[in-house]
Design brief:
The protein is about 75% helix and about 0% strand. The chain is an all-alpha fold and about 450 residues long.
């Protein structure tokens, strides 16, 4: 058991500087979101999509408050599972919402994998058959799984290196794209098929997916120098940096492509926007950045997600079966995570994967804010109106998104609701069965982190 516990807390206390933490946060945030969501958001709300990114940033800024307050109070408590446990204890809301977070993170991996496939195929003139994108996506997940089996240190080094290249490349794309734009005016006169408030809210909800990586920073609380001050600072700086970068990219895409073109090329809109501005070399450059960004994102994400599921297993919140596999629980959760990611990548397209991710994430996010408002407010000295506003904004974005999807793709909302019902029932049965078994004491796990 001690070896397994050691695996879950292998970082050194105080090993991450503020700058390093910001790099970590922005590295995760600027993943597939900016490469694939731009086109999907334009499809929903037309040429107003850069404003939807801004609206998403406002919502995420209110959301960040709860995470900052909890991680300031308990910087060593790693992961969303611990935050939920602080608020709701060893009960269904903790297990249910932690699993929603887990699934939204696995969904994000599939999103990265499909985006990798969509951009890579631009080197070969696109994917007419529709078969190569999932094949490439599945191959990437399996490759990332094999690297994850090799070395934790290698994962961190590769992910950090790719993060720097990716952010630099996207900044170059945004600046050059705006510089060479045909015109500075963005055509707002044709805001998509249905330029309704619901569509704008739906696009805003999708935009939240491009920012939700900030939660990674809170998971690293015990590794950050002076965490009581620097966790909050890192989150604020990361969100601000992403607003600037997304704004630049959105403007570059909107300036170089017509709305119809953005929607038509929604899975690879950055590569398409590079072509008229800079020609074929720019397409290769953009595809290379997208491939690096998605591959690096998956490498880091698979490790983080399997670690979270291992932690939930140790807290006796989810059932665990070895299925005859050797090795630690974290190795087993790595296998589960990869199998689930491969399934989603093979059978769901980018639009549907994003839809599932945002529904699960927003419901979990609301549960975090409610936990702060109802149970933790005094413990963490939180101002009640900020999480209350965050809940209100989340509900508005989620409502708009569900409304759009019920009209355009009700199947995906059915899958989301069905999955949540299955999770809730299965967890309720599991928790009743294990009611007499106490999870590891929260305070003990705290001191374990600190020593």
């Amino acid at each position: 058991m001690s070896r397994e516990q050691d695996r879950t807390t292998h970082y050194k206390e105080g090993s991450l500087s503020l700058a390093g933490t910001v790099m970590l946060g922005t590295g995760v945030m600027i993943g597939a979101g900016i490469f694939a969501l731009t086109g999907q958001m334009a499809q929903m709300t037309g040429a107003l999509f850069p404003l939807a990114f801004l609206a998403a940033a406002v919502i995420v800024s209110f959301s960040a408050y709860s995470y900052i307050k909890i991680s300031n109070a308990w910087p060593s408590a790693g992961g969303i599972g611990m935050y939920l446990h602080k608020a709701y204890g060893n009960r269904l809301p903790t297990a249910f919402n932690a699993l929603l977070m887990y699934f939204s993170m696995v969904i994000a991996q599939s999103f990265l994998a499909r985006t990798f496939g969509a951009y890579t195929m631009q080197l070969f003139g696109g994917d007419e058959s529709g078969r190569m994108v999932p094949v490439l996506g599945v191959s990437l997940i399996i490759a990332a799984f094999l690297v994850n089996l090799l070395s934790n240190r290698l994962i961190q080094t590769v992910a950090s290196f790719i993060g720097i290249l990716k952010i630099g490349g996207i900044l170059i794309f945004g600046i050059v794209g705006v510089w060479l734009a045909d015109s500075i005016a963005i055509n707002i006169s044709s805001p998509g098929e249905k330029g309704s408030v619901g569509n704008f809210l739906g696009a805003t909800a999708l935009g939240i997916l491009a920012f939700k990586g900030f939660t990674t920073i809170t998971n690293s609380g015990s590794e950050i120098k002076d965490p009581h001050r620097n966790v909050g600072r890192a989150i604020v700086i990361s969100i601000a940096a992403c607003v600037v970068i997304y704004g630049l990219v959105g403007f570059a895409v909107a300036s170089n492509l017509s709305l119809a073109e953005i929607i038509e090329t929604r899975d690879y809109s950055l590569a398409a926007a590079a072509r008229p501005a800079l020609g074929q070399y720019a397409v290769w450059f953009t595809v290379a950045i997208a491939m690096m960004a998605t591959a690096g994102g998956i490498l880091a994400s698979i490790f983080a997600v399997s670690r979270m599921l291992a932690m939930l297993t140790e807290m006796k919140l989810v059932p665990h079966r070895h299925f005859g596999m050797p090795g630690s629980i974290q190795k087993h959760t790595l296998v589960y995570t990869v199998v689930l990611g491969v399934f989603l990548t093979a059978f769901f397209d980018l639009t549907r994967i994003a839809a599932l991710g945002i529904v699960f994430y927003l419901i979990m996010d609301i549960a975090i804010h409610w936990g702060v408002l109802r149970y933790l407010r005094k413990d963490i000295n939180a101002n009640p109106w900020v999480p209350a506003i965050a809940i209100f904004l989340d509900l508005i974005a989620l409502g708009g998104f569900v409304w759009v999807k019920l009209n355009s793709d009700p199947f995906v909302i059915g899958v989301a609701v069905g999955t949540m019902i299955v999770i809730a029932i299965a967890e309720q049965i599991f928790l009743k069965r294990t009611a007499g078994i106490e999870p590891p004491d929260d305070e003990q796990s705290q001191t374990h982190h600190q020593h």
